[in-house]
Specification:
The complex is a heterodimer of chains A (about 500) and B (about 500). With about 500 residues, chain A is an alpha+beta fold. Chain A is built from 15 helices and 22 strands. The longest helix of chain A has 25 residues, at about 365-390. With about 500 residues, chain B is an alpha+beta fold. Chain B folds into three domains: about 5-50 and about 155-230 and about 310-380, FAD/NAD(P)-binding domain; about 100-145 and about 380-480, no CATH class; about 240-310, no CATH class. Chain B has 14 helices and 23 strands. In chain B, the strands form six sheets. Chain B has a seven-stranded mixed beta sheet. Chain B has a six-stranded mixed beta sheet with strand order 9-2-1-13-22-21. A three-stranded antiparallel beta sheet of chain B has the order 10-11-12, with no helix packed on it. In chain B, helix 1 (about 15-30) packs parallel to helix 6 (about 155-170), helix 1 (about 15-30) runs parallel beside helix 8 and helix 5 (about 130-135) crosses helix 13 (about 460-480). The longest helix of chain B has 27 residues, at about 360-390. The relative contact order of chain B is 0.18. Mean pLDDT of chain B is about 95; it is low at about 500-505. Classes of the chains: A alpha+beta (about 500), B alpha+beta (about 500). At the A-B interface, helix 10 and helix 12 of A face helix 9 and helix 11 of B.
């Protein structure tokens, strides 16, 4: 420890906008206020457009516990619905669809993985699909969800309105007593390689020991590190955001439907349906995209349509000296698979876990950079897998999407799965093997071989075991409440 | 269509061979023909008679009754390892199984304990670990009032192989007595097609498991896999081993003592004590090492000393073509943390998980090799950490060891702990926070800080919880009988003189 004075980090300034800003500030305040850490929010004008939506994977439920955000408030104030996964439609050609639902599929038989049993049966002509053995998928397709009773159908996430969520978090931060400074055009003052303070355009300045950069464009971090973020070639670089009347009954999953040059997302909210159109600008201009969207969504659009860039960028160094970038400044890209909220949760949870012990020498930065960029690369793999595995041949956008380079890790993961139905899990995976299996099989991979130990179980026994599972699923799903009933319960709190 | 892998040939008995045979017979039953070739003329290497708790998973997989296994192998229970002389003459520290305490405030217990220490708490973290307290008092039981007792075994490797041989043969494994004289490879694919034995018998197979020991008769001598040499990091290349009389009562832990050119093990069994000296031949001759070892036994020798030669490292690929090497044929790390049998076991489970169906896919082979090498590397770092941080013995060997470079991965772990108190590990690692903490602290490598989240726990809550945890550990230890009494009651070897029931203090 340093000889003179207390080296501990005493003040943190969280600078930026959007949900990321408030999530970071609240997490740090809730974790460290008892030790005397002073968190100040420098809130810039929000850039969230009207109608933007967020999909949350089950990980957010635990993260909200950390933030002290009540589930009831999402339903009261952020137009929330429950989500049990995403449906991918038309990725293997028109009419194809699968549901990536959260949770396990099937049950081991004789301690052997269900997938291995199913693979053998499927190779021998079994007609029942993999997804039909997933309790969560069957429940979601039937509009049923079990939010109590230990969540028998596996975990659940949410869909909610991004702007309202941001407002909800802001109110929560205020109620917690976090000091908030509203300002514009932040400029970092650098002294001896560290940011000493942030200056705002009205002349105010906010000094701190540690700065969290949630500005989207890395306004603070760029003062310390001029390296441009790595641009990653992805097929979709633009997105339209629109709105349509609510669906009835409200589905328990979002729909990601491929079109000729990208995909359309339909996310059910309580009061409306969020509609997004992702596309490659080399194949469609904004006007064409809008026309296609109106045709493709099959919904009457209402209100304005906004356009956003979804170019993929990943900063190599997220934490430099005493400044940590979170949110889009760290990693930007497409929205599918709840990746935006996962990104924020990963960045913030690691920051809480690695809050530096010494403000003059933040040794934690190296671990943070290694671990968090590792997580982000794996998130990107999950999204890239959809594009890589599409089977829409003869359409230039999709042919090119299949040919785009992917990480060695993803290439190996796909090859190993095709060979034997094994998911190679790396450090820093956000999606577990169940999710990977669901998506790899959903996109049409049937492993070429299976674990030979499966041959020790007779075919009759396997068939009986599978029938039992299907029977159990039916009974369990029948006993679950509907989405409306679950929402009513969540609203009551 | 490629041919189904229907016949597996294991070359070599011993611990690795019979563990493999037993597990394959359990997994495949009659759907796979399994043959094991071993020669009565070739001795087996009895290193690795101390184990880590994961062996209990292997026993469970085979559905072996633990008491029966202990009786048949002359085993005793093990609660950890006592390191002597590693951090100063006669200095001792204990690396226990189990945990010091639960996570609190979102951080691992060691951060909480470091805060407790900074506030003037007792520097003996062993007081929070039931296994440490039981080891100090010579006690053992499988359970206590507050949970399970984490334990492993000391066992007689020769008896263990015989025990598993009975199991495997009952499960349909065919044993062929014989010595390999020639390996034939397919001219088209380079795969092994058959082995010719001294008797003239020819054994063909689809998959070959090389458990032939250091030489790697198939993986190296026939297929030329190559070797990744780590002797610049781990220079010890010899061990002399000898059995001696029973220590009474048998201690429920392994002892590892730093010596002039390496370290000495002591492993208590029901019917003898295993001893050995791992040393570096550049600094100590075989005769001298043998003499030193014999002069430092607690009990009279009961066998002739034997010298083993090895080189730290691993085969470049442990799975090549249709041959998988398991045990010493795949690589070697000195048994400082009793990992030899563990590495055999994980290789077996990995082989089972990736077992080829029709033909052998390069992706499965690649995965087996990657995972195995990663595992070797993490165990290697943990073993090197003991040497890199040692300060107990002042001899040319230790000076050379301390001056040697260490792997970057280890340097990162040591620096991170020193500067932040954070311990880096992956969930798949065998050695995790508690293991690294006890060894680094035991070797005198102290962190300058603890995690800031540890400070969020109010003082009064901290004091209450630490008192409670300490009391629980004490109650756990106090509830256990003496180790010798536990063995006598549940799992004593037949025809052995009773072990003394005196409890050491």
């Amino acid at each position: 420890m340093a000889q003179v004075g207390d080296p501990a980090v005493r003040t943190v300034a969280v600078v930026g906008e959007g949900p990321t800003l408030w999530m970071a500030a609240i997490a740090l305040h809730r974790a460290f206020a008892p030790t005397g850490l002073q968190v100040t929010v420098v809130a810039l004008p929000s850039t969230t457009s009207r109608y933007e939506v967020l999909a949350a994977s089950p990980d957010l439920v635990a993260f909200h516990r950390l933030l002290g955000v009540a589930e009831q408030d999402l339903f009261r104030h952020a137009d929330a619905t429950f989500s049990m996964g995403q449906q991918y439609a038309d990725w293997s050609g028109r009419g194809s669809a699968f549901l990536h639902a959260y949770g396990e599929t099937g049950e081991p038989l004789h301690k052997l993985p269900f997938l291995q049993m199913w693979t053998k049966a499927r190779l021998n002509g079994l007609r029942v699909g993999y997804e039909d053995f997933s309790l969560a998928a069957v429940a979601a397709r039937n509009g049923r969800i079990d939010i109590g009773g230990g969540g028998k159908a596996g975990a659940y996430g949410y869909h909610f309105d991004k702007g309202r969520y941001e407002a909800l978090l802001q109110a929560h931060a205020k109620a917690l007593g976090i000091s908030i400074v509203a300002g514009e055009a932040p400029r970092a003052e650098v002294l001896q390689g560290l940011i000493a303070a942030v200056h705002l355009n009205d002349g105010r300045k906010v000094p701190a020991d540690l700065f969290v950069d949630a500005t989207g464009g890395a306004a603070l971090l760029s003062a310390l590190d001029t390296t441009a973020p790595d641009a990653v070639e992805g097929p979709c670089d633009r997105m339209l955001i629109a709105s349509a009347p609510p669906l009835s009954p409200l589905p328990l999953y979002g729909r990601i439907a491929a079109h000729e040059a990208g995909w359309v997302g339909l996310v059910p909210l309580a009061g409306r349906t969020a509609v997004t159109m992702s596309y490659g600008s080399r194949y469609l201009d904004d006007q064409q995209a809008l026309e296609r969207l109106q045709a493709a969504a099959g919904l009457r659009l209402q209100g304005d349509v906004a356009v956003l860039s979804t170019e993929q960028r990943l900063r190599r160094r997220l934490w430099v000296a005493n400044c940590v970038a979170v949110g889009p400044a760290a990693f930007a890209g497409e929205t599918m698979d709840s990746v935006h909220l996962l990104r924020d949760q990963i960045g913030i949870a690691h920051l809480v876990a690695l809050l530096p012990v010494d403000r003059a020498d933040m040794a934690e930065a190296d671990i943070y950079n290694d671990e968090v960029t590792g997580h982000y690369r794996r998130l990107r793999d999950f999204q890239a897998a959809h594009h890589r595995l599409n089977r829409r041949t003869g359409e230039p956008f999709w042919d090119e999407a299949r040919a785009l380079p992917v990480s060695d890790e993803l290439a190996y993961k796909i090859a190993l799965f095709e060979e034997r139905g094994i998911v190679a899990q790396y450090a820093g995976e956000s999606f577990n093997a169940d999710s990977w299996q669901s998506v790899l099989i959903g996109h049409g991979i049937l492993p070429r071989s299976y674990d030979p130990q499966v041959d020790t179980v007779s075919e009759g026994e396997v068939a009986l075991g599978m029938q039992k599972i299907l029977g159990r699923l039916k009974t369990q799903v029948g006993a679950m409440p509907t989405h409306d009933a679950a929402r009513a319960r969540a609203l009551r709190g | 269509m490629k041919k189904r892998v229907a016949k597996t040939v294991i070359l070599g008995g011993g611990t690795a061979g019979w563990m493999t045979a037993a597990a394959l017979s359990r997994a495949f039953g009659a759907t796979q023909e399994i043959v094991l070739i071993e020669s009565d003329r070739i001795g087996t290497v009895g290193v690795g008679e101390a184990t880590v708790p994961s062996l209990r998973d292997f026993n469970r997989y085979l559905k072996i009754d633990e008491d029966d296994f202990i009786r048949r192998t002359g085993a005793t229970f093990k609660l950890g390892i006592e390191f002597v002389n590693w951090n100063g003459a006669e200095a001792r520290y204990f690396h226990p199984f189990g945990y010091l305490g639960p996570d609190m405030s979102g951080v691992e217990f060691h951060h909480i304990w470091l805060r407790f220490l900074a506030a003037g708490g007792d520097p003996d973290y062993g007081l929070f670990n039931p296994e440490t307290l039981a080891a100090r008092q010579g006690r053992f039981a499988r359970n206590g009032p507050h949970g399970v007792v984490n334990h492993a075994f000391h066992l007689d490797a020769g008896r263990y192989a015989a025990f598993l041989r009975d199991y495997a043969e009952a499960g349909g494994v065919r044993r062929i007595e014989g010595e390999l004289v020639e390996t034939t490879l397919s001219p088209e694919t380079g795969d092994i097609t058959h082995l010719r034995l001294r008797s003239g018998e020819v054994v063909s197979g689809d998959l070959f498991v090389d458990c032939s020991g250091f030489r790697g008769l198939l993986i190296e001598e026939a297929l030329g896999s190559g070797y990744v040499d780590w002797s610049h990091w781990l220079p010890c290349d010899r061990a002399v081993a000898v059995g001696s009389g029973v220590t009474k009562p048998p201690l429920p832990y392994t002892q590892s003592t730093a010596r002039e050119a390496g370290w000495q093990w002591r492993i208590p069994l029901q019917h003898r004590t295993g001893n050995g000296y791992v040393y570096c031949s550049r600094f100590l001759g075989d005769d001298e090492a043998t003499e030193r070892l014999l002069g430092r036994l607690d009990t009279a020798p009961v066998s002739d000393p034997s010298v083993l030669r090895f080189r730290a490292g691993h085969r470049r690929t442990m799975w090549k073509r249709n041959c998988v090497a398991i045990g010493l044929a795949s690589g070697f790390l000195e048994p400082l943390e009793s990992t030899s049998i563990h590495l055999i076991q994980t290789a077996i489970f990995r082989l089972l998980a990736l077992f080829p169906g029709r033909g052998i896919s390069p992706h499965l082979v690649d995965r087996f090799n990657r995972e195995t090498i990663e595992e070797y590397e993490t165990v290697r770092d943990f073993v090197i950490a003991h040497y890199a941080l040692a300060s107990g013995v002042e001899t040319p060997f230790w000076e050379a060891v301390r001056a040697a470079p260490i792997p970057d991965t280890l340097a990162a772990r040591l620096e991170t702990f020193r500067d932040t108190g954070i311990i880096l590990y992956e969930n798949k690692d065998l050695f995790r926070a508690t293991n690294w903490f006890c060894v680094m602290m035991g070797q005198g490598w102290r962190p300058s800080a603890h995690h800031p989240l540890a400070d969020t726990l109010p003082d009064t809550v901290l004091a209450e919880r630490m008192t409670l945890l300490r009391r629980r550990a004490e109650e756990m230890a106090a509830s256990m009988p003496a180790h010798a009494d536990f063995i006598a009651r549940h799992c004593a070897m037949p025809d052995q003189a009773p072990l003394s029931s005196a409890t050491t203090s």
